[in-house]
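User: quick one, fold this
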Amino acid sequence: MFNRPFDNQTNLRVRIETEAKLYIQEKIKLGDFFLIWSYILDFENFQNPFAERKQAIAKWRNLASVDIEETALLLANAQFFVSLGIKAKDALHVACAIEGKADYFLSTDDKLLKKLATQAQIIAINPVDFIKVLEHDY
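Assistant:
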């Protein structure tokens, strides 16, 4: 989700998801939402070939309220998600969110969200739909 603002913004859906992401990030900066960071985010960001993106994403680590490291339990939980047909890196992201006691796992990946809909450990949701949920709660 961190990369969404860097995606091609000519697609309306991408622009709307970018706006939702930026709104959520502003709420994190204000302390209204809490960000969970993880070793898998560090790993993926380290592999980012675009220096500007890498630096912009790395700054979010400092705003995280929790930083999740790898544990045997986390890896076992990730393996459960792999058994649902989820890619290993995505499974690690989800397992880290659960380990960090996140209420929501936000993603713009429709295939991932569909696969996560069958489990009950965390609410997986698109950032646009997340904002709709928030507005409904207020």
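User: anything notable?
Assistant: The chain has a mean pLDDT of 92.
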